[in-house]
């Protein structure tokens, strides 16, 4: 219930984005949604699998932090903005070239302080981005919620009885996109009806769109973000609820957090997957946790 009810019923009012289309070097595009108030601080928001900038968990922090003196950049992964992307490829947890382009676009606007905030897949994507490359000093820190820090473990968790409805929902959306895309470009979708799990989908489609991986296990092992956590050089908060139906034990990087002075792991008993409903007005626990971490750790007064 903590996962499903907010996802289905929570609505955010008063959000007005300004959309920018970012043309990419490979001929594709990303749609970026801005809230600009001429602030010196920028919050970059990254959505989860098959989400978008219109999801409640993105609009909520956009509304909250724009009122607190931040500009907002909420970006949409390829195919997630309401318009299908141009190329055969989509996105995945470890495809960090697009988030890198988004952050570079944000930095080019002259912001002095940038904080990254990611949800589920978007959180893993930003963690991998931070750990695999040298980052601009204007990026001061990051916050992640409900992150499948170990992708294979998360996929296995979704195979458990009671969690399969989440997998079916995601796979249904992804298959619909594959069929839609096959209508205007050459792409083989034969046998797609039989695909019912993430390993099957990734083996059948993702590995063909992103060549270079030996098999699904190799793919998962190389895109997962937990192997990059100890290389991150800015403060990072990870908030993963213990009752998250999409996270297995390996998605809670306890030992890494114990050894690191920069990785902060919070594991509330409840919260579900990107739920964290709060009784304190219009916002969730996620906005309050992010507020606290920014004020006390990332940008202390």
How would you describe what is shown here?
The protein is of the alpha/beta class and 301 residues long. It has a single domain, classed as 3-Layer(aba) Sandwich (Rossmann fold). The chain has 10 helices and 8 strands. The N and C termini lie far apart (38 Å).
Please supply descriptive tags for the structure shown above.
single chain; 301 residues; alpha/beta; Rossmann fold; eight-stranded mixed β-sheet; 8 strands; 16% strand
SSE blueprint:
Elements: H1 4-9, E1 18-23, E2 29-35, E3 41-46, H2 56-66, E4 71-76, H3 97-107, E5 113-119, H4 121-132, E6 139-145, H5 151-157, H6 164-182, H7 198-209, H8 216-223, E7 236-239, H9 254-259, E8 263-266, H10 285-298
Parallel strand pairs: 3-4, 3-5, 5-6, 6-7, 7-8
Antiparallel strand pairs: 1-2, 2-4
């Amino acid at each position: 219930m903590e996962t499903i009810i907010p996802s289905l019923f929570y609505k955010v009012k008063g959000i007005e984005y300004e959309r920018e289309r970012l043309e990419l070097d490979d001929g594709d595009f990303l749609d970026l949604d801005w809230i600009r108030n001429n602030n010196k601080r920028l919050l970059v928001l990254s959505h989860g699998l098959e989400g978008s900038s219109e999801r409640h968990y993105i609009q909520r922090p956009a509304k909250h932090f724009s009122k607190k003196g931040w500009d907002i950049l909420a970006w949409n992964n390829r195919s997630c903005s309401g318009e299908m992307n141009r190329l055969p490829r989509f996105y995945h947890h470890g495809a960090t070239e697009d988030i890198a382009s988004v952050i570079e676009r944000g930095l080019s606007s002259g912001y002095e302080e940038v904080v990254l905030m990611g949800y589920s897949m978007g959180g893993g994507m930003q963690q991998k981005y931070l750990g695999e490359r040298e980052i601009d000093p204007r990026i001061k820190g990051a916050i992640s919620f409900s992150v499948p820090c170990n992708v294979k473990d998360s996929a296995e968790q979704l195979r458990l009885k009671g969690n399969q409805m989440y997998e079916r929902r995601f796979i249904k959306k992804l298959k619909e996109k594959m069929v839609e895309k096959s209508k205007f470009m050459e792409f083989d979708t034969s046998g797609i009806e039989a695909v019912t799990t993430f390993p099957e989908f990734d083996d059948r489609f993702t590995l063909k769109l992103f060549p270079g991986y030996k098999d699904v296990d190799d793919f998962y092992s190389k895109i997962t973000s937990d192997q990059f956590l100890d290389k991150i050089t800015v403060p990072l908060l990870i908030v993963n609820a213990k009752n998250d139906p999409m996270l297995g034990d390996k998605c809670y990087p306890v030992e890494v957090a114990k050894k690191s002075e920069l990785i902060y792991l919070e594991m509330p008993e409840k919260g579900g997957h990107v739920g964290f409903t709060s009784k304190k007005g219009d916002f969730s626990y996620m906005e309050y946790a992010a507020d606290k971490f920014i004020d006390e750790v990332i940008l202390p007064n």
